[in-house]
Design a protein that fits this description.
Elements lengths: L2 H16 L19 H10 L2 H9 L6
């Protein structure tokens, strides 16, 4: 799970909420691990830190 994935899911849910034809949204994970594992949560936290976000949008790589 990455910050980009979380933002994409959030945007999709906003679109679904505004669409009266959508009555149900079901999220399914792919593969054996399901949606995410504990390490993914740590990675999401790290990628959402201000330095990582600043580096991502400036084109620099986060090497920490």
């Amino acid at each position: 799970m990455t910050l980009e994935m979380s933002l994409a899911i959030d945007a999709a849910l906003d679109r679904f909420e505004a669409d009266p034809a959508v009555a149900l949204v079901l999220l399914e994970g792919a593969g054996e691990r399901g949606l995410c594992a504990g390490g993914d949560i740590r990675g999401l936290y790290e990628s959402s830190r201000p330095a990582a976000i600043s580096a991502r949008y400036s084109g620099a790589r986060n090497t920490s």
